Amino acid sequence: MSSEIETGKFDVDERGEDLRLSIGYDKNFLYLCYTVANHGPMKNTGEDWRLLFKTGASVDLQLGRDPAADPMRRAPTRGDMRLLMTAVDNRPRVVLYEPLNPSADPSEAWTVTSPVGKAKFDRVVELDDVRLYARPQHMSYIVEVAIPLKTLGIKPKDGLRLKMDWGVLRTGPDGYETVERTYWSNKATGITADRPSEARLSPDMWGHLLFHSKKGSTDAPPVPETSLGKEPKEEKGDPFLEGLEED
């Protein structure tokens, strides 16, 4: 069965920027394709993988996995997560942040602090089963991602509606710092000088994601303007450099 989800995009603004996200899914994967035009390079020089949102460019997915959770909750609840995706030294780095996960190992907990506050997470881990490919262009890039549904802990079905936001973190030409945070739904993201504020999740500011299905098809969903559209094969060599292959 091939399935798809409503897609979101930013209109091209006066600076010529064009930020788009296309999403699809099949029985095994959630597929993402970020198209980022005239928004700086995909470059991140961070050494602490938990702080990659501070040290350069990345793309971001924030998702509330519990459809029964209060949609107006101001604080994260169980099931709320953030997936930060970037590249460091030409290698993919994917970090999962869960503010509330009672079953997490205590060693996975993390607190980020500053002179004005702190943000606590029950679980912050680097994922190695997410397949990511980036195609750099001049001050632009495309990032294609395949996330196992079992890693996300969701079971998509027709009509499933979840809270969600997505965004792009911008860096300068050298990729040493994050200079701008732009999100589809949450517009209160102007802070780039306070780690807890930049790490914290605000589900009351998210939009919604609605799943649709197309019965009778055996192909994975089409993802516009990318090579990602079918379940990935086994990788050969470097998955970041070679990308996701089609059947």
Q: Can you put this structure into words, describing what you see?
A:
The protein is mainly beta. It has one domain: Sandwich (Immunoglobulin-like). The protein is 5% helix and 41% strand. It contains 3 helices and 15 strands. It has helices at residues 149-152, 195-199, 239-242; strands at 2-5, 8-9, 18-25, 29-37, 58-64, 80-88, 91-98, 110-114, 117-121, 123-126, 131-137, 140-148, 161-171, 178-183, 207-214. Mean pLDDT is 83; it is low at 1-8, 10-14 and 216-247.
Number of strands: 15
Predict the CATH topology. Immunoglobulin-like
How many angstroms does the end-to-end distance come to? 16 Å
* Main sheet overview: 13 strands, antiparallel
CATH architecture title: Sandwich
Number of helical regions: 3
* Spatial extent as radius of gyration: 17 Å
* CATH top level assignment: Mainly Beta
Helix and strand element order: EEEEEEEEEEEEHEEHEH
Beta percentage is: 35-45%
Unreliable stretches, pLDDT < 50, 5 or more residues? 1-8, 10-14, 216-247
Categorize the overall geometry: globular
Total domain modules:
1
Class based on secondary structure composition and strand pairing: mainly beta
